[in-house]
Structures
1.
Amino acid sequence: MVAGARVDDGSGAGGGGRPAAVAMVLASCASVQVGAAFAAQLFGAVGPAGATALRLATAAALLLGWVRPRVRTWTRAQVLPVVAFGVSLAGMNSAFYAALQRMPLGPAVTVEFLGPLTLAAVLTRRRRDLLWVVLALAGVALLGLGGGEGARPDPVGVGLALVAGALWAAYVLLSARVGAVLPGQAGLAGAMAVAAVLVVPVGVVQAGAALLEPLVLLAGAAVGVLSSLVPYSLELVALRRLPARTFGVLLSLEPAVAALAGWVVLDQGLGGHGVVAVALVVVASAGATGAARRGAPPPAPEV
């Protein structure tokens, strides 16, 4: 999901075509998670830092070419939020891919989802909505009893996924800030460029000349398209037809979609504990999003 795209005010105006819009959101979730699964397959060749560099560089190039932001006209008050947004994107994607090297896709996304879920619950300013966070924490704790294929998740991987989740929450807040100071998707394009500048040198250090191999470049470009361009295109249309709350609740299916993508693409099973854990986090996220007050940003999938 790309930041700043939430233009719906939650009123649900433009109800026509909602079934198609729901399908678009679900297809967007699938595209993001299939892209992550393909990225995991690149780790053997370029490592998580190299895969992150390829993804963000591709996404930045595509967005800059599409949006063509007029950066020279930006003021300091516009540049600073964009830079902060870019830093959050770089950190979020780097931490998530590093976690993905140590744990299956479904559990990684499930743990990461604690960040935006907690944010959504806190923004309601109602204590009872923190119960959704408790439910999600129970799900994540259950993962510790049996993760993918019954094995316990790597503690370092879980820690990295939690860092990614915290940065995901920061991304949601910075998305709103950038959208307030810059029109359209100009801020996102600039932030993506900042993120690429930050991660590409790290990817080069880790992967070296392997990043320039034709098949690796092609795979990295596919990850960038699946993880950024396709979701952006689908969600931009869907958001014009769906209320923000409905959109957010649909996005709450992301951990389940990730688990499915991990199973189909990477042959990563969850085991009984993992299935229940993912279900608990999905229910908690949907509950927190559905309870959110109008204007509070629902959980957003990562760019």
2.
Amino acid sequence: MPDTPRIPAQIALPTHVAGSGRLDRLVDTARGYADHAIAENTRRAYTRDWAAFARWCRLKGADPLPPSPELVGLYVTDLAAPSGTARALSVASIERRLAGLSWGYAQRGMRLDRRDRHIASVLAGIRRRHARPPAQKEAIGPDDLRAMLATLGHDLRGLRDRAMLLVGFAGALRRSELVGLDRAKDDTIDGSGWVEILEAGALVTLRGKTGWREIEIARGSSAATCPVQALERWMDFAKIDVGPLFTAVSRDGCRALDRRLNDRHVARLVQRTALAAGLRPELPEGERRALFAGHSLRAGLATSAEIDERHVQKQLGHASADMTRRYQRSRDRFRFNLTKAAGL
């Protein structure tokens, strides 16, 4: 089966146009832009989705090309109700697989019609029969975070991880946003934003799906838990003057490397420190580990920040208050009593 090509490979001159130095340079520039059309994590996920579908087709004696709604409908059915010992996928995972297939076909100049009845009707039935509330990660509160910070060392690696936890929490940053930060504007091509240190705090500028947004991370009331001081210490001792903000550290823990951390480091950091801090000790270790991830930091701020909901929504970068409320794990759902307000 053909491998999924990267987007830039599809950018080329029309066949009837003769190449030239200037046009060839424009093609290279266009490929560079196209390469950043979607996040690298999304590209990897979509590539895995296509590979899984191609493997399934091979086992069934079918060909994934050209797109066939009938074949995709059967594939979706097999994902929801597999035979043998294979694990059934959730509705969200199946929908993600479909998005990956649509992307894979688009890279080959083809179109998968997801509204075709062979796909849409099957997916609608799967939603009605198998849909369940999404599994949410545990929110990390301020006390939890303090306990997690206490498990970190005071070497360069500990300074970095302490800054990542505090900045990720106070900024309510997604893990990809956190590791995508640069020290300053335009430091790298692959950065997703940068940080400015001001007297009152840190101003984070991020590039999102809908454009640029700014996040204010104010200084804390305690030096031990101030995200800005933690960030300043990391940058000072690691000598981060330009380039990626959070980088790998040498094996001996004495110097920062040039290599940017990937987003999986954030998830592993949250899980490792949550376990070391003894959070949710009543559960087996496997269940405890599964409870915590990078989203635990975002949910922690949304849950624990006792402030007007509009400010929490802005910090999380949500378009609607409903989405923000999904992150508020343990706040009083009945603090606004509309029954009494209506006079009953």
